Structures are given as structure tokens and as C-alpha cells.
């Protein structure tokens, strides 16, 4: 709680350079586990991707074994049967690889009979095998174009080095989200795919907000030659942290409501599929803009001659201003003054006179350079 | 960079936006329009079809028309038949008779060959009307140009006319060369007597009673649905499955014909059950004509001119135009649809399950929104109220748009669409938070909210636009490149994102500007949720 209070009151800066190492390590570990899950265990792809038929029978009594008995005459007793939801929304889901329409009708009738419901109460979904391939292929193609377009957009709107950072973090989110589904063998449905796309959207939004601030700060402090790029990144993260926390909370609230009320209390299976992926993804997405996107950009930018020079100069100074390595948190030249936190310093009138003469000039210069 | 321009009144754009929202909402409500619910929420039947081979857009559109006419027979309130690229989506909300729906939409209807028992020109109504005067009166209703016959290849060119023409003297005005006297004479004898005595019992067989082994009465219509001829037909002697291929071709005589190829394994059946009795004019096929029937409609009723045929030596000829020949070939090959369609996906959603999903979605959506509202109020106080107002305006406009699109474009709201909306709510709240945090930070640094607001907004709005554009690009790409439910998601995400930018600029900005200028709050920034813990002590 005290951390939140500190963040909220702008009293202190968090030195992200220190937590980056921890965060990135955790990220890499989770990434490895995810990749192991995806490659080693494979995805539990739902009917829509594999082809087959599924029946959702609303019933509060029919059990798995009884259902299997009912399916035997149709030769479908090998089907996958599971119970989803509870109470009024309890649904018995039967999934089979068949896409034969006659078998489908036969099974519908058998299940309706066993559950004591009308055939029309059963939701039946049949997917041809080639359709599933197409859906998968289209989704993959859309995903690739999505990445290309977003990268191009960020490169144009901000800069290409940030585009790489954003791409890295979005791919990271995607692998981990999919990885969770692979490791726990949760079934992937079209709803899950939509949820993954949503996650990418949120994560990008988060990342762009950070990057936008980074660009502003770079324009402001870059020319002073006193702040390394890593310092600028750290400063920007501090400035937008509260926003990230608040928006993650506000985005999570409806999703958790969906998960808790919609799927657990009311037992709606369709919502569960969305909400689970969203909850995982939102957390990962918020995490990655801080621990993946930003360090990647810092790392690339530090290789620019300009920032390399600043860096060697700054590190050479007695009081390392905003050096990523070994600089104590918040320790600037005016370390004794709490208000000298890098974020606050230059904007407070009169605090940084050297800056006042050049209000944000490098922006046009940078544009010129790019052309 | 967008510079926030703070006008003196400031609130005018806000008032206009609110008026627009109230106006459009009121209009939609007054018109009685509500959002159209998708299949997954309302229940019903949906099928996704795709051509087996590549098909032109035109052919797909024709298929859609055929499907639509079949669906109309089902009496579905709002059938939705759309083409997305090569895919045809048929969605029939509220359908309860699934078996029939699937037969009508999902399966290519059976092509049947039925012997003609008797025939009359025009529709039954025409005949009833005309028999009360004289039989000669109706010659105007038929078109002579449609003549067809089945002939063996060697006999091409000697085409006989269709059964109907004998009644007419239209031959004098239209291509007289088509009619050959021999066939005309034969058909007259059978048609005339059968038409009048059986008349009272004549009634077109409804589609669901069109059973293969039962005699039926069916009509032949032209493109406009005008009845050309009505036939009494015997039980089917064969179905379309015997056809292995059919091609339109231009005969050396300059005439369009259709080469029909029957499977080698089936040709004997075709000859013994169809060709032989018809050629001999046995009682089962007194007119010597074998009708090609599809979808309870007679496509053509060519005369049989040989007692038996070679499997790959059958030709249908008789003053066909190029398009008629091609259509006939398509029909023979694929059944009623101009392209062979394959069922890719069917969904039968139970109405109760759909209802449950929707109820759970609405309840959790409302609870979620309530939680967000409480959180925003707790953190941003009065600004939280602005955020709620801004969301309300977006939501109002969104509702109007959904209802309008549902009514005019048949666009249905699906569960995926609702998810898109939830995401766009998240984006909208985010926009507010970006601005308020910026403002709070400036105030904490010692500026007054009033002096900081304009600069803060232009900075924040730049961020908001950059981030929203990324969402928008993603949404548009998804809409264009994917199929099915993802499109619904993308569409509503895009709409929500655009509305968010509108609400940010014309609602959030003027209202916040107004609040920070207001004397009442100038000295109480904590009411705005800013600097609640005080700034730096300096």
C-alpha cells in the first residue's frame, strides 16, 4: 500500500533500471515455459480449428457417464464430454470429430432424450475440417499484417527503434498468453483468439503512451547532454506509471466482473472463454510495456552515437546523473533535494535554467534528419 | 501537435455533442429501433458455405439469391445472407425447424428427372381464367424461344419444340423455324385433354411435399418469376447424382447446346427408367418429355428422341441462348446453386443458451461499469464524474449507431461485438486517465489546474490519438482479413475507438476546461482529484 501511496503522491521515483533486471528475468523464464508449452505440449485447439461437431446441452442433471451411454447407439461414445458452468447455466458439452450431418442429428436426438430437453434447446456447431484450416490461416495472416502495420505506424509516428520495442513487447504478450493456454491445456476457441487480439490492443496502447512520453522527454532533455537515454526512459516510466496502474485497474474491473459474475456465478461458458484470456493478457500487457518494450528501446537507443557520447561523459562525471548502471535511485547532482527527482526537476519553473532557453526544439530537427 | 483552444464559452461543442447524442438516441427510440441481436445471443441457425472451386463474385451473388428465395419460404423474420470474400454466411435467427433450414440452405437441392404426365402453358390461374373464355386466348403468355429437346448427337438440329407451344400461334411472330410439326402434334393431343378435366384437382405442389417418388405439379418460370408452363410430373426416375458432367457448347450449326454426361454406372438405369419409356410414350411418360426439376421448379422439359443413350453422347438442344445453355449446364452439374457450395460450418444455437449468455453478459457488463465508475470517482473525484459523463455520451452514440446499423444494414450484435465494445470502454477510460494524470502531475508541480489544463490536454490528446490510431489500424486490418466472429469484434472496436476520440475532444476537454476555470473549484483542487496529498513543500 505504501508503494501505491508513494506513486500516487509523486513523492518518489522508482528506479526501474533496478527492477528491469528482475522483471526481464521473470519475463524470460515465463517466456521459456510458454514456449515449452506451445512447442512441447501443443495447443488444445477447439473444434473451430480442428473440425468436428459439438453439442451444448443445457441440463442440470445429465452426467457425463449417462451422456456417454446415450451416445453409444450413434457410435459416438468416444466423444469428449465435459460439464461447463453450474446451476441454471450448467451445460453438458459433447465434442466429436465427426462432421456427418446424419450422425449430428442422431446425436442431438439422443442427447435431447437423455437430458429431457427439446432438440431445439441444444446448441449444435459443426465445422468442416478445411474450414478450420482456413480460419487458422486467416487468423495467422491477419496477425502478421497486424504486426507489420502497427510496426510501420509506430515507426512513422514515433520512430523505428520504438517500433522494435513495441513489437518485442507485443510478441512477448502473445507468446505468454498463448503459452498459458498451452501449459494448462485450456481449449482455444475463436473467442480466445478475439481475447488475444484485445490483449494486443491494450498492450500496444500502454506501450505507446510510454513511448510518446519518452519521445517528449528525449526532445526536452536529449539536447542538454546530461541525461542518458536510459535515464529518459526511467523518467518517462515514472511519469506514466500511475496512468498504467489506473488504466490496468479500470480495464481489469469489467473483465474480472465478467469472470466472477458472468462465468462463475451465472455460469455462462461463452464469457468464461473471453474473460480468462483477457485477465491473463491484461496483466502481462501492463507488465511488458515496462519490462520489455522500454528496456529494449533504451538498449537500442544507447547505441546511438549521440547517447553513447552522453553516456560516456555522464558516467565519467563524479555524480552520475542518470546512469543505468549502479546509480542509486533518485541520486542526481542535487541529490539532497527531494524535488530534484528527474521528472519534476526541469518543469518546475526556475529549477533548471539551462533548459528554459531551449523549449523543446529537437523535434523538428529530428524530423528533418529522418527525411 | 494539437493545441487545445480554449474559447470563452468553451461549452458550446459539448452542448452540441450532447444534443447530438440525445437527438440521435431519441430518434432511434422514437423509430422503435433496437439493436439487432446476433445468432449467438438470440438463438437460431447459421451456416457458412464456400464454393468447392473458385467462383466469381457474380456466381456467388447468384447463389445468394437462390438461397434467399429458399429461405423466404421458411418465413424467417430477418434472414441475413452475406458474402464475405469467397464465403457465404447464412444466418437465420429464431429458426426452430432446424432440419428444414439445413435442408433448404445447407444442402444443394436434389436435381431430379421426372417424366412429364401432362402440361399446360402458363400458370394454373391463367388457365382457369382463360378456360372460362376460350383456350386460344392465352397464346400471349408463353414465349416460344425456350424450346428444348434432348437428342442424340447425330440428331442435333432437328430439335423439337417444347410441349407448350402447340397452343400458340405466336410462332408466326417469334422464330418460326423452331417449331417442328411432328412434335407439336404429339403434344397437343396430350395437353389439351389433361388440362381441362384435371383442372380442378390442379394445384402446385408445395416445396415440402415435393417428394421424389410421388407425382407432383410444378411450374416452369422465367427469370422474373413469371410462370411459363405448368407440368404434371410423375415420380422421379433419376436424380442429379447420375450426372457426371455438363457443359455448354457451341454446335457447328451455330446453336448453343448442352452436352450432358451421365456416369457410366448409371446410364443403364437412365435408359431403362427414363429414355426408353419416354421414347415409347408409355403411360408413365405419355408426352415423351423428361423434365429436369430443381428446387421444386421445372428447369426444362426436353423431349426424348432416342430409346437409349451413350453415357457421354447426350446433347440438349433447341434454340438456347448462350446464357441459357450455360445456366442449364450449371444446374445439371451442381444442382440449383450456380456454384457447388460446401458446408463449412453450421451452428444451431439454442435460444435459451443464447439468452443466458446475454443475461450474464449484461449483468457482468453493468457490474463492471459500476466498479469502474466507483474507482474513477474515488481517484479523480469531479474529474471522475466527467469521465462517466464522457462514457455516457459515447455509449449513447454507440447505442444509436448499433440500432441504426441493425435496422438499415442488418448488422447484428454478437457476443464478440460486445467484447469489442467492452474493450473500447477500456480505451475510453484510458483516454480520460491519460489526461487526468497529466493534469494532476502538472498541478502537483505547483501550477494551477487552470493554467495547466490547456497544455496538458494538447499533450495528452496527442498521446490519445497516437494510441487510438494504433487500435484503429488493428481493428480495420482484422475486419478486412478475417472471417466470422472476429469481424464483429473489430467493427465495434473501431466504432468505439472513434467515438472515444470524439468524446475526448468535444466532451472531456470543454468540460474539464470549464471546471478548472470555475471559481468554485479554483481553490479546491482536491475536488478535481488533483493534488489530494499536496504538492511538494516548496
Structure in words:
The complex is a heterodimer of chains A (371) and B (538). Chain A is of the alpha+beta class and 371 residues long. Chain A folds into two domains: 10-45 and 131-305, Multidrug efflux transporter AcrB transmembrane domain (Multidrug efflux transporter AcrB transmembrane fold), CATH 1.20.1640; 52-127, 2-Layer Sandwich (Alpha-Beta Plaits). Chain A is 65% helix and 7% strand. Chain A has helices at 2-8, 16-41, 47-50, 64-71, 101-115, 129-157, 160-183, 190-221, 229-265, 269-301, 305-316, 353-356, 362-370, and strands spanning 44-45, 52-58, 80-84, 91-96, 123-127, 187-188. In chain A, the strands form two sheets. Chain A has a four-stranded antiparallel beta sheet. In chain A, strands 1-6 form a two-stranded parallel ribbon. In chain A, a hairpin with a 6-residue loop joins strand 3 (80-84) and strand 4. In chain A, helix 4 crosses helix 5 (101-115), helix 7 (160-183) packs antiparallel against helix 10 (269-301) and helix 8 (190-221) runs antiparallel to helix 9 (229-265). The longest helix of chain A is centred in the middle third of the chain and has 37 residues, at 229-265. The model of chain A is unreliable at 1-11 and 318-371 (pLDDT under 50). Chain B has 538 residues and is of the alpha+beta class. Chain B folds into three domains: 12-39 and 350-528, Multidrug efflux transporter AcrB transmembrane domain (Multidrug efflux transporter AcrB transmembrane fold, Up-down Bundle); 44-106, Alpha-Beta Plaits; 111-336, no CATH class. Chain B has 14 helices and 17 strands. Chain B has helices at 12-30, 39-42, 57-72, 98-106, 124-131, 181-195, 267-279, 322-334, 351-380, 382-408, 415-444, 449-481, 485-517, 519-522, and strands spanning 36-37, 44-51, 80-84, 87-93, 111-121, 149-152, 216-221, 227-233, 238-239, 243-250, 256-262, 290-294, 297-300, 303-304, 314-320, 341-349, 412-413. In chain B, strands 5, 7, 8, 9, 12 and 13 form a six-stranded antiparallel beta sheet that branches. Chain B has a five-stranded mixed beta sheet with strand order 10-11-15-6-14. Chain B has a four-stranded antiparallel beta sheet with strand order 3-4-2-16. The model of chain B is unreliable at 1-7, 133-200 and 532-538 (pLDDT under 50). The interface between A and B is large, with 87 and 82 residues.
